[in-house]
Amino acid sequence: MKDKDNENRRNKRYVVDDLAGNVFYTSELEVLNLSIDGAAIETARRLELNREYTFKIKGNNSFLSLKGKVVWAILVSKVDKNTGAITPVYRAGIRFTDTLNEKANMLIKFIEENKLRRMENRLGGVRFKISAKEQMKVDLIHEYRVKKISLSGMLVETEYPLDVESCHDIELFINSHSLTILGRVANIKEANTDGINKYEIGIEFFEISEGDEEVLQEFLNSLEEV
Question: What is the pTM of this model?
Fold first, then answer.
């Protein structure tokens, strides 16, 4: 179905109800303790239990990217020591899933370079407090549903807000294809759907491969024929 606002747009936009995908969002976190087998972390955004994420750790003299699965998660309250303000934060336990061979040696080196003190002995190994808390990040995956789409962008609905002008790696699923797109957040509007706070986000396609663009164009052509 064509969008009524097409006359004001560079490319025709179509209303759809069967497209979805993922937005990858990098979020900062605090590492409470770290070991060769896993970590306890604190973040402002919820991590899904049993889901695997990519964690990026930058220390004093090293950088490391690790995959890890969330094995436990709880919501707690954190008090700001300066203002007394209380904010909800999520704490989670992560079990690393790719610390074999060279990555294990890299993680051991990272801990040695950044550890503050030994915490405790556990079945999986010794846990350490580390000094590079502010340099930890995690790649989060936010699912979205497409409401309108064109060759140059789309309007999506998601439960997670994104910053205007921020750029993200995006997966778009069309039939049996998974398109990889670099997108820029052009605008955002809060909406309430069935009592649930959601967000309508306009995304401009900033970078897309020739092959993926052909798949998208073919899909849009099929909507034109309906």
Answer: 0.63
